[in-house]
Amino acid sequence: xxxxxAGVNLLFFAIVTSACLxxxxxxxxxxxxxxxxxxxxEDWRFNKGESPTAMMPGxxxxxxxxxxxxxxxxxxxxxxxxxxxxxxxxxxxxxWYRRHFTLEAADTxxxxxxxxxxxxxxxxxxxxxxxxxxxxxxxxxxxCDLTPxxxxxxxxxxxxxxxxxxxxDSRWYTGSGIYRQVRL
Length: 184
Description:
The protein is of the alpha+beta class. The chain has one helix and nine strands, in the order αβββββββββ.
């Protein structure tokens, strides 16, 4: 390499380095707004089976049983030979989860999302009776934006429908339900 080319390369490196350092310093000077996490693992209600109006806020879930996440309804059985060996002969099916929560009125205009670390298998999520998203694959985490529908200073109802009716869908035990943590 000739001396002129080496000098141009060195000058380019110096410009890029100082630009990056300046950007890093500017980013460090401006603190990011705090991200607040609210654990939603407790106080869920669960029912195994289809409930066509369970996403509605006024739905009566008083007879549903309380559960804490993570939750796997397949491990409760009954275990039968007709179920797939890859699922440990455990049942799949459809299950519903519901949870109420309230956010402070002072938090109005903040962005709010529900983060699901794992729901097996096909998850559909509603907030206050409105569909907000889901995930058709049980091994990936996902997030649903709740901002347009969340009510600050009032009760909110989060409902999750889990469809693991294709119980012969794996070569190993997968479980069924919200099997990992959930947070706002």
